[in-house]
Amino acid sequence: MTEEEEIKLAEDDSTPPDILRKLGRSRSGEVRFRVAVNSNSPVDILTRLSRDRDGDIRRGVAMNDNTPVSVLEKLSQDKIEEVRKWVAENPSTTSNILYQMSVGDESWQIKQAIIENPNCSVDILDIFSGDEDEDVRGWVASSDKCPASILEELSEDEYSEVRAEVAANRNCPIETILNLLQDEDPEVRENAKDNPKLEEYLEIKGPDERDRIERLITMLDLGARVSDEDLDLDDLDLDDLDLDDLEDDDLEDDEDLGESRRAVERFQLWESRGRSRYK
């Protein structure tokens, strides 16, 4: 049988286990790799291939969803990072194995794979929420498993990219979303404004609260600095605001001035139409 014929059999999910066992002993690394990733490969041949000298073969075993947990645990300590990364991505890898990897592996790629694994636990997210790499903290903030307590902590992260992920997370507490509406970074504010939980909150609270929040958003569109005392905006009147009197430091360039003028016009139009929903 030629190598090409062996490869064709090795990659066929309908190939009987007995034939895959024989192919798993092939001298061809390409054939053994195809056996390693084959979903029909029996446990005994996967276990054997997990000890293969060729790292690519071990990587193939780590990629296979049918690989036994005991084998995945051994491969989680493989000297080759790519093998460990595939263990971290494998949906059959348990939370216990992922936890062990989270406290012992410094690779950012593996950390990302762990966070995105469906078996990633809250304990693991808690560990990574304090990671020195802002990208790792951002992946934590974007996880649909991230609890409110961790999101609240990350909402004060020094990196706006992390705060933006917090603002977009459906698990973010409404109090945190309201705070992030006032963030200095426009992407953070936009994500907070678009978070579905904000709309749910406004639907429950009614028109007065919607009016208050939408006026706050308008003021922030203008680049205003809003303190806690300014959250009650009933006394604010943008008709009296003259943009020509703004100091140079208040606006970075002419484009910003144009945006501010448009924001004023949108607000005044909104006011004239009886404070319909701000858009």
Proportion of beta-strand residues:
under 5%
The biggest sheet amounts to: none
Q: Residue-averaged pLDDT, rounded?
A: 85
Series of H and E elements:
HHHHHHHHHHHHHHHHHH
- Anisotropy-based shape: elongated
Total number of helical segments?
18
| Number of separate strands | 0
Could you explain how this protein is built, in words?
- Helix 7 runs parallel beside helix 9, helix 11 (134-142) runs parallel beside helix 13 (160-168) and helix 13 (160-168) runs parallel beside helix 15.
- This protein has helices at 3-10, 17-23, 29-37, 43-49, 55-63, 69-75, 81-89, 95-102, 108-116, 122-128, 134-142, 148-154, 160-168, 174-180, 186-194, 196-205, 207-221, 254-272.
- It starts with a helix and ends in a 7-residue tail after the last helix.
- It is built from 18 helices and no strands.
- The longest helix is centred in the C-terminal third of the chain and has 19 residues, at 254-272.
- The protein is elongated.
- By secondary structure, the protein is mostly helical.
How is the topology of this model organized?
Elements: H1 3-10, H2 17-23, H3 29-37, H4 43-49, H5 55-63, H6 69-75, H7 81-89, H8 95-102, H9 108-116, H10 122-128, H11 134-142, H12 148-154, H13 160-168, H14 174-180, H15 186-194, H16 196-205, H17 207-221, H18 254-272
Helix pairs in contact: 1-3, 3-5, 5-7, 7-9, 9-11, 11-13, 13-15
Protein traits:
single chain; 18 helices; 279 residues; mainly alpha; disordered C terminus
